[in-house]
Amino acid sequence: MDQTKPFYDLCIPYQRDEKVMREIIKEAISLGYKTIAIDQVYDHSKRDVTKRGPDIFPAPVGIKHLENEFKSQVKILQRITIIYVDVAVAHAMTNSQNLKKFNLIAGQPKTDAALTHCCTAFAGDLVTFDTEAGVKLLVNRKAYKIAVKRGLFFEIKYGPAIRDSSVRKDMIKLAHNYCVRGKSRNIIFSSDATNVFELRGPYDVANLAYIFGLSEDQGKNAVDKACRQLFLRAESRRIGKTIMFVKASGPVVLSDSSDEEDEEISDFEEVTDGVVGIIKYKSERYSADDSTEPPNKKKK
């Protein structure tokens, strides 16, 4: 499994101009980010229904050279944002092999029905919103609770708010909706920056918690622990169920104790798939007048 370190910016839009991409990555590194995600956007609502292929979703863009170039400075993930209007996207996602190549999958609903589906049945990791069209969709309390229970996260982008003041109002409105409906649980902050001037440092981003109705701890987690949890959740979706066996090269004794009754207890741990079972073995007791003597004990 890939290793990641804080701080996180999980939405940097992909751009064909490699020079601009390289400048944004360098600026993110200088600000203190250790994990970033390059985002691709696919609009499922504009697909050509007359054409049927084995996989309608695009493959990840080729940024292997950037990953190798900044390998020692930052971890680069690949993300796809799926814009959709109906639940027909679920069948396409099930049969897609390209989606398994992405580290993160985000859903961007365009209708109320799509928003409800995104919270309750979307086979992805993240729920985001359209910054250009304005925040017209607000999640209800029930759908928010279901999304949190399923392990989904909600994204708040600060980059578009820097570009447009009207978007800033919509973003604050969306954030307070998350606060009222679900106490701002499972929230992450990302930049959605298209140039270096829209990036901000992780501590400055965490301070946005006071504007968005989050607590101080939630603001820090939005660029650190919550992003790490999102990544782990996405990895479990990609890899599936895994069994881990731990085998000792020799006898392992966790504790030895003796008391007045000559009792000896040995604890052994057997770890399989995160489940720890402790098996205790207790030696037999022998009384002074018992004719049966314990094994390997010499007669006096």
Concise overview:
This protein is an alpha/beta fold and 300 residues long.
What labels describe this entry?
alpha/beta; TIM Barrel; two-stranded antiparallel sheet; 2 domains; 300 residues; 7-stranded parallel beta sheet; single chain
**What is the succession of H and E elements?**
EHEHEHEHEHEHHEHHHHEE
**With helices defined by DSSP (H or I, 4 residues minimum), what is the helix count?**
11
- Per the CATH scheme, the topology name of the largest domain is TIM Barrel
| CATH H-level homologous superfamily name of the largest domain | Metal-dependent hydrolases
Describe this structure as you would to a colleague.
This protein has 11 helices and 9 strands. The protein has helices at residues 18-31, 64-69, 89-94, 112-120, 141-150, 159-163, 165-182, 202-206, 209-212, 216-221, 225-239; strands at residues 8-13, 35-43, 75-84, 104-109, 126-127, 153-157, 187-190, 265-272, 275-282. The strands form 2 sheets. A 7-stranded parallel sheet has the order 1-2-3-4-5-6-7. Strands 8-9 form a two-stranded antiparallel ribbon. β5, α5 (141-150) and β6 form a beta-alpha-beta unit. 31% of the residues are buried.
Question: How do the strands and helices of this protein lay out in sequence?
Answer:
Layout: E1 8-13, H1 18-31, E2 35-43, H2 64-69, E3 75-84, H3 89-94, E4 104-109, H4 112-120, E5 126-127, H5 141-150, E6 153-157, H6 159-163, H7 165-182, E7 187-190, H8 202-206, H9 209-212, H10 216-221, H11 225-239, E8 265-272, E9 275-282
Parallel strand pairs: 1-2, 2-3, 3-4, 4-5, 5-6, 6-7
Antiparallel strand pairs: 8-9
Helix pairs in contact: 4-5, 5-7
